[in-house]
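Minutes, project check-in
Item: structure for the 305-residue chain
Input as provided by the requester:
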Amino acid sequence: MITPSHATDYPPVVRIGSRTSALAMWQAHHVIALLTSAWPDLHCEIVPFVTKGDKTLDQSLPSIGGKGLFTAELEAELRRGGIDLAVHSLKDLPVENAPGTRLGAICARADVRDTLVARNGWTLATLPSNAVVGTSSPRRQAQLLAHRPDLTVRSIRGNVETRMRKVQEGDYHATLLAAAGLQRLGLDHAVTEWLTVEEMLPAPGQAALAIQCRADDTATHTLLTAIHDVAAAAAVTAEREFLAGLGGGCSAPIAAFARHEEEKLRMDALVGATDGRRMIRVHGVIDAPADDASTDDAPVGDETT
C-alpha cells in the first residue's frame, strides 16, 4: 500500500477506459471508489469504449477471433495516451500483455462461481431432457454436457441483462452466468442454482478485475499499487500460466481455479472436449503464503479424469 505525499504525485485527472455495458461501468466506478479512497485528492473520468466483441452479436466469439475481442480498442487508446488506465474483467484479457502495456493492479476477487438462471425455478438436475441452455463459453458448454449430456447447448450473446431477458422470453430454458456479475448488478435474485466449483470450474481469472496501464507510466502504476491485492494476483497468475501453457483463449474449454489454503496455493484445472465426453482434470499445490505474489512454480500436478 502507498500513502500519497502531496497532490503533485499524480495527474490532475486520471482517464479510465471502460466498456459501456452496465457491468463494465459498475466495475469502472468501483475502481474509482477504490482509488479515491486511497488517494482522496484524485480526480477521475471514465472514457467509454464499444469493442468488437460488443458490436458483433450475431456470431460466436471463437468465430470472430476469440482473443482480445473486449480489450483491443482500450489497449490501443492506452498506448496512444488517450487514457491512463483501462479496467477489464481479467478473464477477457489475453494472457500476453499488449506491447507497451502492463498489468498495474489486480483487485480483490469476488465470487468465482457460475450460476444457472432458468425458467420455472429449474436447477441443473431438474432441467427437462433436451432443454435449451444458452452459453457461448466452450468451458461452460463442456462442463454442462459432462453433467447433462441430454441437454441442448445454443450460443447466446449480449450483456447480462440481454441474456436473462432471452430466457424470460422463452428463447432458452436457461443460461449460465457468472455469480460476480449478477451480484455486482444486484441481479442475483434471478439465480435458480449456485453451481459449486466442483460442478463448474471457473475460467482463469474469473471474478477478478484487472487494471492495465502503460508500461512506462510510473506515476499511474504507483497509484495502482494502493489497490493491488497480492493474494488475488498470485492466484489468478497461476491460473493464467496454466492457460498460457496450453495456448488457450476463450475458444478452448479450459478452466482453472487457484486459492490460498494454509500457506499453500492450491489449484484445480481442466481441459476438455466441448461435447463433455472427455475431461482431463489436474490438481496441484505449492508452498505460497497469501502475501507472496510469486508464481514462478505454477501449481499444476496430478491428473484425474
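Outcome recorded: The longest strand covers residues 264-272.
No further action items on this chain.
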